[in-house]
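Internal tracking record. Fields below are filled automatically when a chain is submitted to the structure queue. Please do not edit lines marked as system-generated. If the sequence contains nonstandard residues, flag them in the REMARKS field before resubmitting.
Queue: standard
Priority: normal
Entity type: single polypeptide chain
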Amino acid sequence: MRISCAAYSFREALTKGEMSLSDFIRLCAEMGLDGVELTGYYFPDISRATLNTLKRECFRFGLAIAGTATRNHFTHPDAEVRKAEVEGVKRWIDIAVSLGAPMLRIFADRGIPQGVPERQAYDWSRECIEQVLPHAEAQGIVLALETHWGLTADAERTLRYVRDLKSDSFGILLDGANTRENPYEMIEKLAPYAVSVHAKTHARNARNEFFELDYERIFRILKAAGYRGYVAIEYEYTDPPMQAVPRFAKKLLTLRNRMHR
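SYSTEM-GENERATED OUTPUT FOLLOWS
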């Protein structure tokens, strides 16, 4: 396994302009990470010059661009909006190619629209991904569907996509914290289909109470499933990320190295 960090971990500083993606890349190198996940929300622009600069900086710091990420709304009731969302994800596939990123994170939905049956929402979402997949396959990009509430709030809902889409260019971005079911059971069920993993320090239980996740247990589950890809830190807890993320990175790197002896 390789340890990386999603730019989303520093979302407040990036949004306020207190940190740039270049600053983020340098920080990840200082933490001794293997790669970065360049969350699309924080790009200053998507010009070729900017993409080339970010790719060059990662190369010089010895960091792989493990993936990038975009927002999408595949369950909007308006078919024209869904069509535009499909085209937007296709553009981000092209951006991933320019970056040299092998993976693009997508969502199933932004919540199931009020009054829309879940089955209808799922069909819209699946159909949109089916329209995007040929472009991903042609460009050599893997679409990574994040477990992120709504239509992917638990293992069984998420596995519908795996069963129905059946593509080597599609897999699961596994975030065990984005569920109210037992996160370890969810990780165990989905690990065989994971193409990327997000690592949060804490999750919430059914009573909305925070608890710390056991990464020794999680790494054992991933290793047993044969997972060898990236585990990307996605920090969301209450401590300041400039202190908390390096501390968490050190913990994950130490654990990874111990398990690989």
